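[PROTEIN RECORD]
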Amino acid sequence: MSLLEEFKCMLLKKGKMPSTIHTYLFELSKFSSWLEVNGGEIRMLTRFDVQNYLFSLEEKGMSANTLQKIYACLCTFAKFLQKPELVEEIRIPKILSPLHIAPKALNRQEKNKLLRVVERDGNLRNIAITYTLLMTGIRVSELVALNKEDIEIRDRSGSLIIRNGKGNIARYVPLAAEVRYRLGKYLETRLDGLSPLFLSNFKQRISSRSVQYMLHKYEVHPHLLRHTFCRQLVMEGVDIATVADLAGHLDLNITRRYAKPSEEELQEAIKRLST
């Protein structure tokens, strides 16, 4: 029986969840492969190996949160080996409080890439959904609740109304020209008399899960588009109160997070110290 198989048996006996066991074995397998390339061996593990492995992952840009999870896996493995000293005084990046770091958002290049790929797919509904989420910042739950009558499109302006936002507070959100154009093109195809703004392939009101699944094909999540909207407004100098109103935030502290540096910006700042 291999060392990792023995470790798996120990995890099973301790009643660990199957998902946890799978994750631990996957991470240890990657660690073992790294050791082979770098002159180590998992049966003869040293503290030096553990620290250098975490350093290598950090240099590749792995987030502090992910590094913490891998470290937890290595701690469990060290305990299994009865060598707790392998993970003592190991340096790993600390996870910053969510209130001290901006939520992850798409940068300009990532945003342009997403819009380009969605447009190339040619699905007018999906294009309209993507532009609406990205350029209004509404929640996916608010998007799927929209009806046709909640949208007003004019030549030089337009808006949508969220009738039941968070806290049951209604709000108006202006529509940028490109959103009005994309929604208009989509609505031209809607020859039915159904009220929901966005329909599923089965002519029912689209669900949040369906929107998430659609965006997953483009490797993004609705929350990421909302974060991008808020972050861009703050970076353009729009005041926090206005951003909070547009996003439907009940607490200004939530909005202020978007003025904080992003994780990527913090990493870039540290890199400058070593150049």
